């Protein structure tokens, strides 16, 4: 199972918030949208440096990574003020826009624990298979980081830690939803 693929070739990679992510004043958000070296539920591993060229190109062109709600380009909910790679992964810092309804809803859902995932929207520029059959993503074109309901990278968390059974349930739900999306896309 891979992240959701759109007709444009855009892929998504999900990560749950964890203690590295914080939301303050109901609108400020910062943490990791992607971790290096961790295998996600689709069997992909993002390699350190995979975002470097994309982030440099965005900066050079005066563009920014978008903050969306559930990967919907019609629903921006805030702005990412800072997006960078460090030794752990892709770190983001931004603001939910409380002046728009969906921004206020996102803040409330995060505060209630109903939303606990981040997902990146990207195109794969370069990838290789490793000896374990995993796709190692070596260069990605980053488009957006979304707040989402079902993340693929179960190792990143926000709030209370849950038991292993919960992770398995979420993986099953994510697999069913991904398969349904792929089936609908084949139409």
Automatic annotation (TrEMBL):
Signal sequence, start to end: none
Gene Ontology annotations of biological process type: proteolysis
InterPro entries referenced in this protein's UniProt entry, alphabetically: Peptidase_S78_dom, Prohead_protease
Domain Prohead serine protease: 25-161
Keyword Cell inner membrane: no
Matches recorded under Pfam families: Peptidase_S78 (PF04586)
Keyword Protease listed: yes
Protein name in the entry: HK97 family phage prohead protease
Protein species of origin: Thalassovita mangrovi
């Amino acid at each position: 199972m891979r992240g959701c693929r759109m007709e444009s070739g855009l892929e998504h990679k999900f990560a749950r918030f964890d203690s590295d992510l914080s939301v303050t004043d109901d609108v400020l958000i910062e943490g990791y949208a992607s971790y290096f070296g961790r295998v996600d539920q689709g069997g992909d591993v993002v390699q350190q440096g995979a975002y470097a060229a994309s982030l440099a190109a965005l900066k050079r062109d005066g563009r920014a990574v978008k903050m969306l709600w559930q990967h919907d380009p019609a629903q921006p909910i805030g702005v990412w003020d800072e997006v960078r790679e460090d030794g752990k992964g892709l770190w983001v810092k931004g603001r939910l826009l409380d002046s728009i309804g969906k921004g206020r809803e996102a803040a409330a859902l995060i505060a209630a624990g109903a939303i606990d995932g981040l997902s990146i929207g990207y195109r794969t520029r370069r990838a290789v298979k490793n000896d374990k059959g995993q796709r190692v993503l070596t260069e990605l074109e980053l488009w957006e980081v979304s707040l989402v309901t079902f993340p693929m990278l179960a190792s990143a968390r926000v709030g209370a830690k849950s038991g292993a059974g919960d992770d398995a349930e979420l993986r099953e739900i994510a697999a069913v939803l991904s398969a349904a999306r792929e089936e609908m896309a084949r139409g």
